[in-house]
Amino acid sequence: MGSIIGLSLWVALATVIPGMVTIAVVWLAFVIANGGDLSTLPFNFDQTSDWIVTSIAVTVMVMTQALGIILEKMMIQWKWYGTRKKEELAKMDSEPMGWYDAYKKLYPQLARLKESDDAKGHLERAIAQFFMTNNTLVSFSVGLVTSVILLGQGPGNPVGLWWYAGALVLCLAVTYRVAVSRFRILGESFLAVYQDQS
């Protein structure tokens, strides 16, 4: 039962929340572009079937997750989550693998973990936080792209939309820094488990 609850929490953090953020930032972009006049929006959630709204929400969530996976792959390949500084490496006696090497072995190693290896759930939380943050980068990016497209179409409230786009850029910058931090914590947590098993 505990594993089912843990899985549900992971799905909620990594898929549902970023999907909801995507819906929110895109909706807000349209509201700002229309000067707050909801009657002129191209779609009206109040008058749309619950099935359609749910389908749109699920699609946004799934696509956010898919784009997050692609983003994660690129950022791992290009090592954009940062690397250890030389002075940090000098303080360590030995390191069997770096963060990126550890991450590449994440899924096979997770399959081998016993419940006692992550008894307090630190690794599970680090993984969920990392993927949630990474996927939220996609959400803010989608909101920013939507804002730029609406600006190009000459909306009724360009000043508000520029401020909104600027806020999304700030959110992207903060979220990226958090993603780097979460990646480091994930790498360190996984390395700790790996070293205990060696």
From TrEMBL:
Keyword Transmembrane on entry: yes
TM regions (residue ranges): 7-31, 51-71, 137-155, 161-180
Keywords: Membrane, Transmembrane, Transmembrane helix
Protein name (database record): Uncharacterized protein
Organism: Sunxiuqinia elliptica
